[in-house]
Design goal:
By secondary structure, this protein is an alpha/beta fold. It is 30% helix and 26% strand. It has two domains: 3-126 and 204-222, Rossmann fold (3-Layer(aba) Sandwich), CATH 3.40.50; 135-200, Alpha-Beta Plaits (2-Layer Sandwich), CATH 3.30.70. The strands form three sheets. The protein has a six-stranded mixed sheet, sandwiched between helices. Strands 8-9-7-10 form a four-stranded antiparallel sheet. The protein has a three-stranded antiparallel sheet with strand order 4-5-11, covered by helices on one side. The structure holds ribulose-5-phosphate (5RP).
């Protein structure tokens, strides 16, 4: 199976998970990226069972709306039953690196509201230790140089994502060379740097369920 076929397989498994676990009329959070896009496509036939969807990015909003889904404003919603999203890396404890698509801040907000975070990945994303994938950090533009210096002190090499502006009007620094042995601690340390909006470590609020596509099957891993 190619990586793309694994992404499609796990997207269909996520659709089945939602059909089995989300009550009719409840609200679903939807992530960002190529795996999430396959999930949106798979979800469309059951759109009338949903009370509405919350998008984690402008791109996802447009795709959901284009498929005829009712896209709600998070400020009008108190409760999201399930949030389905991909990841760039996920470890055994279901802590993740996210933000390869630059949507980390909105993804973190939607994840914080959701009861259950379902991560959908192909096997290449499953790692023993997070950090091979550069850690995205969303930064207020005027703080770029200050934040980069602070991130270097934490042992990483930050690189500006050239030509990229987030949905929130900010910049992304991708931090290379981090070996992340204590993801929860590092997540809090980076959030504590003045000028950081959020970082792509999802450890304090990791996934609750991992649907992991291998070349032969989709495995279900629970926290
Ligand atoms: O965090 C993300 C976007 O900000 C994505 O979930 C992550 O980059 C995985 O993307 P893909 O499914 O395309 O591999």
């Amino acid at each position: 199976m190619t990586q793309d076929e694994m992404k499609q397989a796990v997207a269909h498994a996520a659709r089945d998970y939602v059909a089995a676990h989300l009550p009719v009329g409840a609200i679903l959070g939807v992530g960002t990226g190529s795996t999430a896009n396959y999930f949106i496509d798979a979800l469309t036939p059951m759109k009338d069972r949903l009370g509405g969807v919350i998008a984690s990015s402008e791109a996802t909003h447009q795709r959901l709306a284009g498929h005829g889904m009712l896209v709600l404003d998070l400020n009008d919603v108190e409760h999201i039953g399930i949030y389905v999203d991909g990841a760039d890396e996920i470890d055994e404890s279901l802590a993740m690196i996210k933000g390869g698509g630059g949507a980390l801040t909105r993804e973190k907000i939607v994840a914080a509201v959701a009861d259950t975070f379902v991560c959908i990945c192909d096997a290449s994303k499953h790692v023993a230790t997070l950090g091979r994938f550069p850690l995205p950090v969303e930064v207020i533009p005027m703080a770029r140089a200050h934040v980069a210096r602070q991130l270097s002190q934490l042992g990483g090499t930050p690189k500006l994502r050239e030509g990229f502006i987030t949905d929130n009007g900010n910049l992304i620094l991708d931090v290379h060379g981090l070996r992340i042995n204590q993801p929860t601690t590092l997540e809090s340390q980076i959030d504590g740097i003045a000028g950081v909006v959020s970082n792509g470590l999802f450890a304090r609020r990791g996934a609750d369920v991992l649907l992991l596509a291998t070349s032969s099957a989709v495995k279900v891993v629970k926290r």
